[in-house]
Amino acid sequence: MLVKSTTRHIRIYTAEVKGQELVESDNVLTLDVDPDNEFNWSEDSLQKVYRKFDELVEASSGEDLSEYNIRRIGSDLEHFIRSLLQKGEINYNLGGRVRNYSMGLPRVENPETEGKYL
């Protein structure tokens, strides 16, 4: 049975990609990061998310691929993405079709407000 976790910026499936299809798997997880392109990603910041994903999967090694366990990994990745945004490692894609600032208002460069969120 295909199990998935869908958060605002993370989708995890118990499946692997073959061609253009997701094929169910009992031992493979597939990660889709920021499917709505809400953020601008550098290759380095995207790799940090993949490494964190691998770390979280390894930490839950031996547990069932249940909806609960997969959702927990997805939530942890959401928090990790928020930390990347707060550190300035990623930023909002202001040209994207989605602009709801789900992780807080964007930073505005201004000497009076430097280092603060508006």
Topology:
Elements (H helix, E strand, L loop, with lengths): L3 E3 L3 E4 L1 E4 L2 E4 L5 E4 L5 E2 L2 H17 L7 H21 L3 E2 L26
Antiparallel strand pairs: 1-2, 2-5, 3-4, 6-7
Helix pairs in contact: 1-2
What are the key terms here?
alpha+beta, 32% helix, elongated, 118 residues, 3-stranded antiparallel sheet, single chain, 2 helices, two-stranded antiparallel sheet
Number of strands: 7
Question: What count of structural domains?
Answer: 1
Question: Could you tell me the radius of gyration in angstroms?
Answer: 16 Å
Number of helices, where a helix is a run of at least 4 consecutive DSSP H or I residues? 2
Report mean pLDDT, rounded to a whole number.
87
The main pleated sheet reads as: 3 strands, antiparallel
| Arrangement of strands in the largest sheet | 1-2-5
Shape: elongated
Strand residues, percent? 15-25%
Helix and strand sequence = EEEEEEHHE
* Quaternary structure type: single chain
User: Unreliable segments (pLDDT under 50, ≥5 consecutive)?
Assistant: none
Helix share bin: 25-40%
From the N-terminal CA to the C-terminal CA, the straight-line distance is 44 Å
Structural class by helix and strand composition: alpha+beta
